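HUMAN: You are asked to prepare a plain-text protein record giving the amino acid sequence and the backbone structure tokens, both parts labelled.

ASSISTANT:
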Amino acid sequence: MLLLCGCDITTTTTPTQPPVPIATLFPTAAQPAPVPANATPAPDTGWLAGRPGVEMRRIDVQQDGKSAPLVIVRVDPAAVHLRVAYAPDEPRSLRSWFSQSNPILAINGGFFTEEYRTTALLVSDGAPIGESYAGFGGMLAVAPDGSVSIRPLRDETYDPAEPLGQALQSFPMLIFPGNIPAEIEDNGERSRRSALALDQSGRLLIIAAPSAGWTLRGLAAWLSQSDMAIDRALNLDGGSSTGMYLKDGALEETIDSFGPLPTVLLVEGK
């Protein structure tokens, strides 16, 4: 078996079969920051504006009577530049990626081996690396003109002849095109999660769940039923890999990964 670091999923060495959930390698429970006794967090901040085309929202969702917070950043692809960064020989925490790259936002990418090599295809600055998943999973694709898509690979296989500026593959799809929740067979484990989604207006939603409050199936169902008009969504490598750093004027978020990451998605200003 090929070990996938950072999340509760493994897959075979030939990436053509759906993954089988297993336990995570690292702790999945985030350490919450101290909260003053008189503080009452808002259950939903609504969309907070940064620069044009960048918004952030924090939502405290109740799952089985327990808090399961989500941090969601919504970006207009026409207003930013998306970049997949890959450094398997120099993996580092998301905090280090963010401080060294100085983007607007950074989030963890897809799955990787113990040797910090990607288990799927990615495209970084036009250069393809790795082998595409086949028949499962999905791909965030950024065309040379900056247009963005999220594609289920069971329906749209990767074409090496297609010019791509950036691309990132992961699994499973949480929501298929048309806001159809995926039929996910997970083991019911709650973990830190991260995901990407496109709404019906073509905006990219970058999602992090910093505490161990979500199953994959539960996250898919909640996103599908939310007020965010999501058309499709793709799970990223969650668990110990989950992280999000954001700094854009008054908008700020600091969720670090528990371990080093070889791949990140960066949102940069134009």
Helices lie at 94-101, 216-225. The first strand starts at residue 9 and ends at 10.
